[in-house]
Design brief:
- The complex is a heterodimer of chains A (309) and B (129).
- Chain A has 309 residues and is an all-alpha fold.
- Chain A has 14 helices and no strands.
- Helices cover 55% and strands 0% of the residues of chain A.
- Chain A starts with 9 loop residues before the first helix and ends in an 11-residue tail after the last helix.
- By secondary structure, chain B is α+β, with helices and mostly antiparallel strands.
- Chain B folds into two domains: 28 residues; 94 residues, no CATH class.
- In chain B, the strands form two sheets. A four-stranded antiparallel β-sheet of chain B has the order 1-2-3-4, sandwiched between helices. Chain B has a three-stranded antiparallel β-sheet with strand order 5-6-7, with no helix packed on it.
- Classes of the chains: A mainly alpha (309), B alpha+beta (129).
- The structure holds zinc ion (ZN) (2 copies).
- One zinc ion binds next to loops of chain A.
Chain lengths: 309, 129
């Protein structure tokens, strides 16, 4: 029935809005003298990564789309297109986003793609657009399979995913401190997502939410932003390059080099690809859990506080 | 949205934002105002290796940092800083200083400006490790 369903490509349509919002944030920072930091090369790099993400979607999008259409052929279920089905689809796709994002931080193969979004030491609206070029190669489209198999049309699922990404754009700002309590309780907000971008040990591996923060509360990954632990944005090992190619591929190169070292067992080679980031066969690197433990050895007073339990 | 319109928006948007940021003076690179600055930048990035000494570059955009058992470098990266431990590969001499190539693909090569006297100090510290 709904084989030829089409929805607008909302992310492309949002491009003019992105540009205007960035200019508004800039004017806000310039006039108020607070609420964020911009640096030319950092911002331009983020924007180029965003443009590259859209390009890779145009070039490689057919792979995920083809996969989804095969599933749609197989499934006998069709939930139709009423507005409340779209709403349920949006909420379930947000749950899908939570898990893909969590895998993105806990499986190095997926992190190799997502790391890019965290590679800026700044946190402003351009950071939101610093997106991966290599998402297709993580094969995380399989996490969407259940949605399509239960009868949500692939075009609807992608439409909801696009809306999800657009929602996440505006939360990449320091210009908004805290929102009313009920919003902070239910929704992903600038404050919650700032914590997610922190390289402070406290904030590693927290707040994976897309739109609804309830998933983090449900699955035990919620850490509220602490006023006495200012978020230090970026990576545990910050990048020393503005070269978009290095940014897009550095972790893939790292995986390749680690896996092809001499003298490793097959298991060790696989662990370099699929274990959490920071895993090493000789203990020479630190995973996020080990970084948290090392922090607590230096700062025992933080024991039991948010992010350290 | 047709592809040419999208392309024009993206290219125009990036160029326009770049021009505005530059005109607002936001391209000025970070400089260490003193050694304390360099050490705190180092310890932000490498907290498990407390610094025991530092040698600023002649333009204050980089600093060699010594720690128990090794040496590293911290440098100005846009408006921020980045740090790396230095391994066995010695830097290359250039016309006005040194060039460091890092083994990780996430760092471009770094050129450090060093006057004659600073260069001597850096070379000695690098050889001493
Ligand atoms: Zn993330
Ligand atoms: Zn983000």
């Amino acid at each position: 029935m709904t084989d030829h369903l089409t929805y607008p490509d909302v992310v492309q349509l949002a491009v003019p809005f992105f540009i205007i919002a960035i200019l508004v944030e800039l004017v806000w920072i310039a006039t108020k003298g607070r609420g964020g930091r911009y640096e030319t090369r950092d911002a331009v790099t983020s924007l180029i990564m965003g443009a590259g993400n859209v390009t890779s979607g145009i070039l490689l999008g057919f792979i995920a789309w083809g996969f989804f259409m095969v599933l749609w052929e197989i499934t006998p279920l069709d939930l139709g297109t009423s507005w409340w089905i779209v709403l349920i689809c949006f909420v379930l796709d947000d749950l899908r986003y939570y898990w893909v994002h969590r895998f993105g931080h806990r499986i190095r193969w997926v992190w190799a793609s997502h790391v890019n979004h965290h590679s800026s030491q700044h946190y402003n609206l351009t950071t939101a657009l610093r997106q991966t070029w290599t998402g297709t190669f993580t094969f995380m489209m399989v996490v969407r399979a259940p949605l399509i198999l239960v009868g949500f049309h692939p075009a609807m699922v992608l439409f909801c995913g696009g809306l999800n990404l657009i929602y996440q754009f505006w939360i990449h700002t320091e210009a908004i401190n805290r929102l009313p309590r009920w919003v902070e309780a239910i929704m992903n907000t600038p404050s919650h997502h700032r914590a997610h971008h922190g390289r402070n040990p406290r904030y590693l591996d927290c707040n994976y939410a897309g739109v609804l923060i309830i998933w983090d509360k449900l699955f035990g990954t919620f850490v509220p932003e602490q006023d006495d632990d200012k978020v230090d944005y970026g990576l545990v090992h910050n990048l020393g390059t503005f070269n978009p190619l290095r940014i897009a591929f550095h972790e893939w190169v790292g995986i390749y080099r680690d896996m092809t070292q001499r003298g490793l067992t097959v298991r060790e080679r696989l662990m370099y690809a699929f274990a959490p980031p920071g895993w090493s066969h000789d203990g020479s690197r630190k995973s996020s859990d080990e970084l948290k433990q090392a922090h607590l050895r230096r700062h025992p007073e933080d024991k039991g506080s948010a992010g350290f339990s | 949205m047709t592809l040419p319109v999208l392309l024009a928006l993206v290219v125009g948007g990036i160029a326009g934002i770049a021009a505005i940021l530059h005109l607002m003076g936001l391209t000025t690179p970070y400089r260490f105002s003193n050694g304390h600055d360099a050490i705190s930048a180092w310890e932000r990035e490498v907290p498990e290796r407390p610094a025991t000494g530092f040698h600023l570059s002649s333009d204050s955009r980089a600093s060699l940092v010594t720690f128990e058992g090794g040496v590293g470098i911290v440098w100005s990266f846009g408006g921020d800083t980045v740090a790396r431990l230095l391994g066995d590969t010695p830097p290359q001499k250039t016309q006005n200083g040194l060039r460091f190539d890092f083994p990780d693909f996430g760092s471009s090569a770094l050129k450090v400006r060093l006057k004659e006297t600073d260069l001597d100090i850096w070379m000695k510290a690098l050889e001493a490790q």
